[in-house]
UniProtKB/TrEMBL annotation:
Full protein name: M20/M25/M40 family metallo-hydrolase
Presence of keyword Translocase: no
Keyword annotations from UniProtKB, A to Z: Hydrolase, Metal-binding, Protease
Residue runs in coiled coils: none
Annotated Peptidase M20 dimerisation domain residues: 196-352
Keyword Transferase included in the entry's annotation: no
One Pfam entry name: M20_dimer
């Protein structure tokens, strides 16, 4: 899990690619900020032009009721060749310039083999690795497989219109294999392919204890305290062993035991390196499981934000009428997001107390967990591509984040693979986000080889 291992040798990333990455990262395509909507549209146009420069005969921007997506298609010369659909996103997470120390979020900087800037790793660098892999792969007029792109502009805000895109453009997005390019590598020295991602359910829990904020000198000790009640509920999400207390939550979860997404021998997560890489003070979570199992193969429930009382005003003497918590639940097979949403509501109903009003909002933008079918020929082709680039055997790992993999698999009727160029040290969603140019280089090599391998062994055992 640590980058402190030898890196496979190879030529540097082409300067043209780093110039392209810097140009794109400089576009502040922050999807959660309505004032940045023109920048998200500009980012979509930039990518559309980049697809055309790469050689895509068809590339366009798809408008939605929200922010635009980008679609491209480059048909193979052989009409019977497999069709690969690559999914990712061009929008980026919000950034506070005051927290960045190396450079400003949208002023990309190349330093010590890393490109710094918001979106450099999540996920603009990953998308450009695909484009440069195509340029390396195509030696004639067309790739060996038909390559399609779906790059949405709302992933960082929950992909509110992804379902509409998949339904409205079902014919254009039909594929034999889908690849999600919004994930992380194991490290630069130990090649591993992600084969499973957790699902996610988000929720906003609001507690009210009064019609308006109160002066504590008048009511303290007798009035309902919304903030204290919210803290009680948040604490009740887990028992003393770190297990989530939603009713029926663990019923479909597999009993502890060997898991295909668990790290194999030689890839156990080093806790000290993980703490250093992530900047975390301590490793907690469900008792009785390794750090890798808690990250990849066990569900989790997190509090993403707590708010109470008016912002920007002194809190002394105030009893807030309302308090809010934003929750994130991550799921593993065989859990389903809709069932967990119902379990959240049942859990709240069991914990209500007189003297408070409660509200739980669970948006429909949720995702089921997904696992790539083991032994699928396309997975074998990816393994060969990654192994060729790294010059070492490939292992399979899980990923603790979520992706719309199950949604894409259902919509396309195709298996989903995962391959990205992110690293645990890339600081996604944090200050000083960066991408490692060696990760881009290895990703380009792996993807170019994968495109070569995908059509040549369709009869591999599955």
């Amino acid at each position: 899990m640590s980058p402190r291992v030898p890196r496979p040798p190879g030529p540097p990333v082409p300067a043209e690619m780093l110039d392209e990455l810097a140009e794109w990262v400089a576009i502040p395509s922050v999807s959660c900020d309505p004032e940045r909507a023109p920048d998200v549209a500009r980012s979509a146009r930039w990518l559309t032009d980049a697809l055309r420069r790469t050689g895509f005969p068809y590339a366009t921007t798809w408008e939605t009721r929200g922010l635009p997506a980008v679609h491209g298609c480059w048909p193979a010369a052989d009409p019977d060749a497999p069709v690969l659909l690559v999914y990712s996103h061009h929008d980026v997470h919000a950034a506070d310039p005051g927290e960045w120390t190396v450079t400003a979020p949208f002023r990309p900087l190349l330093l010590d083999g890393r490109c710094y800037g918001r979106g450099a790793s999540d996920a603009k660098g990953q998308i450009l690795a695909h484009l440069w892999a195509l340029r390396a792969h195509v030696t004639g007029a067309a790739p060996a497989v038909t390559v399609k792109y779906l790059i949405e502009g709302e992933e960082e805000t929950g992909s509110a219109h992804l379902a509409d895109l998949l339904a409205d453009h079902a014919g254009e997005l039909a594929a034999d294999v889908v690849m999600v390019s919004d994930t992380m590598l194991w490290s630069l020295g130990r090649p591993a392919v992600c084969t499973a991602v957790r699902g996610s359910v988000t929720a906003t829990l609001t507690v009210r204890g009064a019609h308006r904020d109160l002066h504590s000198g008048a009511v303290s000790g007798a009035a309902s305290n919304a903030a204290a009640e919210l803290c009680r509920l948040v604490a009740a999400l887990h028992d003393r062993r770190g297990r989530i207390t939603l009713p029926g939550f663990y019923d479909p979860v597999a009993a502890p035991g060997p898991d295909p997404a668990a790290p194999p021998d030689g890839l156990a997560v080093d806790e000290g390196a993980w703490l250093a890489d992530t900047g975390t003070f301590g490793a907690g979570g469900e008792a009785g499981f390794t750090l890798a199992e808690r990250l990849w193969t066990r569900p989790s429930a997190e509090v993403a934000r707590l708010t109470a009382g008016p912002a920007g005003r002194p809190a002394l003497g105030l009893l807030p009428a309302r308090a809010t918590a934003e929750l994130l639940v991550r799921l593993v097979p065989e859990q389903r997001a809709d069932q967990v949403a119902g379990q959240l509501r049942a859990w709240l109903a069991a914990h209500r107390r007189p003297g408070y009003h409660y509200r739980l909002d669970v948006p429909p933008t949720r995702s089921d967990p997904y696992r790539t079918p083991p032994g699928h020929p396309a997975l074998a082709a990816l393994d060969r591509g990654v192994g060729h680039a790294y010059g070492a055997p490939v292992r399979h790992i899980g990923n603790g984040g979520a992706a719309p993999a199950a949604q894409l698999a259902r919509a396309c009727g195709a298996p989903v693979l995962f391959f990205g160029t992110g690293l645990p040290t890339d600081r996604w969603h944090g200050p000083d986000e960066r991408t490692d140019t060696d990760a881009l280089r290895l990703g380009i090599g792996a993807l170019a080889r994968f495109l070569h391998e995908l059509p040549v062994r369709p009869d591999a055992p599955g």
